[in-house]
Amino acid sequence: MKYGFELLLLCAFWGAAGCQPNENHLVFEVEKPEATTSDNPVLEVNLTEVDASCGQCQFEMPGAGCDLAIRLNDKLYYVDGSSIDGHGDAHANDGLCNCVRKAVVSGKVVNGRFVVSDMKLMALSDTPALSEGD
Predict the structure, then answer these.
(1) pLDDT digits (tens, 9 = 90+) for 29-73
(2) By three-state DSSP, how is residue 16 classified?
(3) β partners of residue 106
């Protein structure tokens, strides 16, 4: 009986530890900034093709966890208004933590972050892999 209780307690602790929410993947409403300065101009983007991926895993941006980011005009931006898990399983073979995908986006760059109003990942190309010697 003593070992049964200890086992039950251990399982409860183990289960509770794995059920903690990951705040890096939560989506928050983004308020529009009231004013921008000449140091932080707003750049509007409408239906532009960009590279999209995990900022930490693929773009080597600072941060903890896995967060959606885009490369626009050779600059990297974290994305507000959409989450990495909103575009499929991020850790699948074709997920944003494992590859860089093309996406078409609309939104604004505000204070160094991309505030997305629309984002659609493009379908993966069906290009065959090159064999050795090609």
Answers:
(1) 445 444 444 556 788 988 899 999 999 999 999 998 999 999 999
(2) helix
(3) 118
